[in-house]
């Protein structure tokens, strides 16, 4: 069985992909944000370039800050963005 997840991209991630969001289908064995990132890397090309180095990225699952080991569960949205700095 599959389920859908909306992925929203921000800042340079959005610019490099040329889109601000997409809907992906997840298999039952896609358990964590890290699994979703692996799926994106496996697409190759620009996805592999962007998502291979997860240290340059931050995540929010249904608008709550999350890490790679966070279970996706029944979440509807994954946001991917670079670290935010400010002063």
What do you see in this structure?
By secondary structure, this protein is α+β, with helices and mostly antiparallel strands. The protein has one domain (2-81): Ubiquitin-like (UB roll) (Roll). 26% of the residues lie in helices and 31% in strands. The chain has helices spanning 11-17, 33-41, 45-51; strands at 2-9, 21-27, 58-61, 64-66, 77-81. Strands 2-1-5-3-4 form a five-stranded mixed β-sheet. The longest helix is centred in the middle third of the chain and has 9 residues, at 33-41.
Q: Topology, please?
A:
Elements: E1 2-9, H1 11-17, E2 21-27, H2 33-41, H3 45-51, E3 58-61, E4 64-66, E5 77-81
Parallel strand pairs: 1-5
Antiparallel strand pairs: 1-2, 3-4, 3-5
Provide a short characterization of the protein structure:
The chain is α+β, with helices and mostly antiparallel strands. It has 3 helices and 5 strands.
Features:
Ubiquitin-like (UB roll), 31% strand, five-stranded mixed β-sheet, 26% helix, alpha+beta, 87 residues
Question: Which series of helices and strands comes N to C?
Answer: EHEHHEEE
CATH architecture: Roll
Structure classification: alpha+beta
Strand order in space, largest sheet: 2-1-5-3-4
CATH superfamily: Beta-grasp domain
């Amino acid at each position: 069985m599959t389920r859908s997840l909306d992925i929203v991209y921000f800042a340079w991630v959005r610019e490099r992909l040329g889109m601000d969001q997409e809907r992906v289908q997840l298999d039952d064995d896609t358990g964590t944000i890290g699994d979703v990132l692996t799926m994106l890397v496996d697409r190759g090309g620009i996805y592999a370039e962007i998502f291979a180095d997860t240290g340059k990225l931050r995540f929010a699952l249904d608008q709550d800050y999350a890490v790679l080991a966070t279970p996706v569960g029944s979440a509807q949205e994954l946001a991917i963005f670079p670290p935010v700095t400010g002063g």
